[in-house]
Q: What sequence folds into this?
């Protein structure tokens, strides 16, 4: 059984959520840094992490780490790594992404080019060949430079983990599936509580919540680059991990999850996406303006990604919209509101200061996750249903 250091990148500001997920999956966390968590795992962990983690961007096998302040140092240290243990003689390999922060080497294209040459030189020596046809399986490589420390990982995932496979149609400004899952995990919501998204768009928040409620692994219906790396991760490991995920699904769970949107087309898209995800029976979608938002239930959660007013023509509509959110939320007096937005005057327009406020980068955009907490529900007495 092979042992690896595995690197899981995530959204900046949500490392603690991913750390908890990895621990819950049964693996030891080695390091938590800005935008990524490193943990120890075997070949089985590569499969289970890809299929089961809701908040990660991808899973990388750490090939090595070293200091490099010059391109010569980058070349020699990259060449010194045991690439032949990972990439076969016919493998297709390239540096898919290079990111540099506070480092003397900062040009992504130069970093990518020099590392590719270094890997070629290493493999030419090991395989005793002068030309690589690269006709075999793909081995994308990713590199991070932070304060001149170079960390190199082999990408086992391929297409980012936020692409679960259910969201074929999206809204204008969709929230990534793994970000939505992370934000839900930052709340006390669980499957027996009410969840409403009054700006559901293409349905991401309700669908991610339903996947959690039914214990459906996010990567259960998709493939991964490392599926074809049988010398590193045997196919039986993938078969077992997929089977484990299928065995854990519980579609009999009772839920009160709703998604509303003023746009009829968005509600139609949400329904299609939910059906593709296999959770359409667990969510109620309806065309509804936020001005009509109400609910008979108690102690529910509003979790939402309302318009930010990023476009100039929309800015005039944003203050009255957030005031309307505040008015409707005030009437739901036992509820909690969790809202991600880049709109700076959100608290002022809602009419209440948030109990908690977390800065999160949604791509390159700085956003805030405002948390307006309602009262805790009374404890259920022992023996009560």
A:
């Amino acid at each position: 059984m092979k042992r690896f250091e595995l690197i899981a990148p995530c959204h900046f500001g949500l490392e603690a959520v991913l750390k908890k997920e990895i621990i819950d999956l049964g693996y030891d966390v080695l390091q938590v840094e800005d935008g990524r968590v490193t943990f120890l795992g075997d070949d089985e962990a590569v499969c289970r992490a890809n299929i089961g983690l809701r908040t990660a961007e991808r899973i990388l096998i750490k090939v090595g780490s070293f200091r490099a302040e010059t391109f010569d140092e980058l070349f020699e240290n990259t060449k010194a790594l045991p690439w032949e243990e990972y990439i076969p003689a016919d493998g297709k390999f390239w540096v898919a992404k290079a990111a540099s922060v506070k480092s003397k080497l900062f040009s992504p294209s130069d970093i990518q080019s020099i590392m590719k040459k270094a890997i070629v030189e290493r493999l030419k020596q090991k395989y005793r060949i002068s030309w690589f046809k690269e006709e075999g399986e793909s081995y994308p490589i990713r590199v991070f430079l932070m304060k001149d420390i170079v960390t190199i990982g082999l990408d086992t995932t391929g297409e980012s983990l936020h692409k679960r496979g259910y969201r074929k149609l999206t809204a204008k400004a969709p929230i990534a599936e793994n970000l939505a899952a992370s934000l839900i995990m930052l709340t006390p919501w669980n499957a027996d509580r009410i969840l409403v998204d009054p700006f559901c768009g293409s349905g991401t928040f309700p669908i991610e919540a339903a996947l959690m409620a039914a214990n459906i692994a996010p990567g259960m219906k998709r493939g991964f680059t490392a599926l074809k790396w049988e010398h590193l991760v045997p196919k039986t490991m993938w078969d077992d991990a997929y089977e484990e995920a299928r065995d854990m699904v519980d579609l009999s769970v009772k839920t009160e999850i709703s998604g509303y949107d003023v746009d009829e087309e968005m509600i139609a898209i949400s329904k299609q996406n939910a059906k593709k995800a296999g959770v359409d029976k667990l969510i109620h979608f309806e065309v509804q303006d936020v001005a009509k938002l109400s609910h008979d239930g108690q102690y529910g959660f509003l979790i939402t990604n309302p318009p930010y007013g990023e476009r100039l023509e929309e800015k005039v509509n944003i203050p009255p919209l957030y005031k309307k959110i505040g008015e409707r939320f005030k009437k739901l007096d036992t509820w909690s509101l969790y809202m991600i937005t880049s709109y700076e005057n959100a608290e002022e327009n809602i009419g209440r200061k948030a109990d908690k406020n977390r800065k999160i980068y949604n791509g390159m955009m700085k956003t805030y996750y405002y948390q307006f907490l309602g009262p805790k529900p009374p404890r259920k007495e022992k023996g009560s249903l």
In short: The first strand starts at residue 3 and ends at 9. Residues 3-155 form a domain with the VC0802-like fold (CATH 3.30.2130.30). The chain has ten helices and 14 strands. The two ends are 46 Å apart (CA to CA).
